[in-house]
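Lest this sound abstract, we let one protein speak, letters for residues, whole numbers for local backbone shapes, and leave readers to judge:
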Amino acid sequence: MFTGIIEEIGVVQDVKRGTNSSALTISGGIVFNDLKLGDSVAVDGVCLTVSGISGKTFTADVMHETLKRSTAGNLKAGSRVNLERAMPADGRFGGHIVSGHIDGTGAIEEIKNDGIAVLYKIKAPESIIKYIVEKGSITIDGISLTVTSVTSGSFGVSIIPHTAETTTLALKSVGGPVNLESDIIGKYVEKLMNRGQREKTDSNITMEFLTKFGYTGG
């Protein structure tokens, strides 16, 4: 599990592409303080498993499903990426619950200055928008952000100077793709509600059955 608080910006050193997969080699600094083989690292919000470490670089494999759902397939040598190690059990919870399992991608529709902050408008599919609420949480390229507005096809976030300086979001321009992970709580609530509705629909207990056995509706 992650929190969406980016630790540093890493640099992609190499990309080895397979038919339906790829292997990334990424350099960094802070994340190597206690990094071990098998650890999880969020790369632009995508949870990847460290398969190799050499000095200040690590290697991670990217499977087909991840390539389909995220921007990982667009990465190349020189690409800058947001890095966050998995949250330790005794760590501080600075952002929100982030799984590192990307729901899909969106595109930057507008960038506008707003005093010291910068407003980003992100176009996203309805399958993701339905889980986004104003003042709720959203993860963009691994960054935990607060939603400032929501429409039927887009949502807005406000970026403070610190976030702009310590993440890759300020490097992106209008039209650029971004990884999106909506708040997992909304997904669980939806599933539980749908399950409850199905159980009601599939029940063999009908009004006719109840009347037959003495129910009067009182």
